[in-house]
Amino acid sequence: MFAADHGSRVRRLYKLIFRVHRALPPELRIMGDNYARDEFKRHKKCNPPEAKIFLTEWTDYAITLAKQTKPLQQVKKKKVGEYLDPQLLDHMSDEQLAQLYELHKAATEPSDETDVKPTESK
């Protein structure tokens, strides 16, 4: 009974995250979808205490992002996301820190569209 209920909650959260991502700009949506998909796959067989933490953090993420992507909030703040508490870094594994760094690089590198120069007509 518990396993079936747990699986149902995980699926609902997974679908919710992808629904919330629809409000993001296309580049962020692709990156967010890929990241969420990968993280859920990685934690598919984690132990119950890790699963509880994992689901709590992803639920908080979905709620925060849903609030930030409401049209009225976007007009007021024009901001999506929030800064990571530096104290959380002390609790991350080397693998998590490397993954966070890769995510930071992907989010801050200029898109290819801005690098394209208009062609001159002769």
Please, could you describe this protein's structure?
Belongs to the complex I LYR family. SDHAF3 subfamily. This is Succinate dehydrogenase assembly factor 3. Interacts with the iron-sulfur protein subunit within the SDH catalytic dimer. It is found in: Mitochondrion matrix. Keywords: Chaperone, Mitochondrion, Transit peptide. By secondary structure, the chain is mostly helical. The chain has one domain (2-108). 69% of the residues lie in helices and 0% in strands. It is built from 6 helices and no strands. The protein has helices spanning 2-21, 26-42, 48-68, 71-77, 94-108, 112-115. Helix 1 (2-21) runs parallel beside helix 3 (48-68). It is globular, with a radius of gyration of 18 Å.
Task: Give the secondary structure arrangement, pairings included.
Blueprint: H1 2-21, H2 26-42, H3 48-68, H4 71-77, H5 94-108, H6 112-115
Helix pairs in contact: 1-2, 1-3
- Main beta sheet: none
What structural class do you assign from the helix and strand content? mainly alpha
Strand residue percentage? under 5%
Tally of discrete structural domains: 1
Task: Give the % helix.
Answer: 55-70%
Q: Unreliable stretches, pLDDT < 50, 5 or more residues?
A: 113-122
Shape: globular
Radius of gyration: 18 Å
Keywords: Chaperone, Mitochondrion, Transit peptide
Organism: Trichoplusia ni (Cabbage looper)
Pfam families: Complex1_LYR_2
GO biological process, one term: succinate metabolic process
